[in-house]
Amino acid sequence: MEKKQWILVSVAVLLAGIYVCFFTAWFRPQTIQIFSVTRPERNARIGARVKAANKDTAIVTFGLNEPYRLTEIKVVPLAKWETNHDALPLWHLISDSNSVPVKAFPYGAMLRGMKPAIARTWPQPLEPNVTYRLFVSAGSHKGEHDFTPPPK
Fold it and tell me: In this structure, are 87 and 49 located in the same domain?
């Protein structure tokens, strides 16, 4: 190959690399879109853990943009997390093997295929009008969401 051809091939490869880096999602971390909904306790099918975790607040339900096999769920008070990234979570679940795909779950629920990070711990009750941050991960996909539960 001539010198001119090598230069053209190099420029083409460079432009293809720039395109892949800036205009595709190949190298960007995948984010999970999360939203929260608060509703008063009217449903009799809610478990005892969910009722205990939401005793002073309306029940907080989290929704995801699509079903995910979650590997970790963690809720921490936002004020404590901003000063200390190792703040103790109020609710921390991890996947022990293979969790079921979920698209929505209430605060404090035990999801199939997940267990507390510390054995035999219950979710701590939420306080009304305090801002919390939810961290969710499903393999390489991660997401976080701030929410403030209203009082009952």
Answer: yes
| Distance from chain centroid for Cα 77 | 15
- Asked whether the whole model's pTM tops 0.90, one would answer no
* Same-domain pairing of 98 and 82: yes
Clarify whether residues 24 and 39 are in a common domain: no
CA gap 144, 29 in Å, rounded = 13
Closest CA to 116 of 135, 141, 91, 136: 91
Between the alpha carbon of residue 77 and those of residues 13, 46, 80, 115, 118, the distances in Å are 48, 24, 6, 21, 18
pLDDT per residue, tens digit, the chain (152 aa), is 688 888 999 999 998 888 888 887 777 777 899 999 987 766 546 676 677 777 778 888 999 999 999 999 999 999 999 999 888 999 999 997 788 999 999 998 888 899 999 888 888 999 999 999 999 999 888 999 999 999 88
Task: Name the residue among 82, 37, 42, 60 with its Cα closest to residue 128.
Answer: 60
**Full residue range of the structural domain in which residue 111 is found:** 34-147
User: Do 55 and 9 share a domain, yes or no?
Assistant: no
Whether residue 48 is found in the same domain as residue 15: no
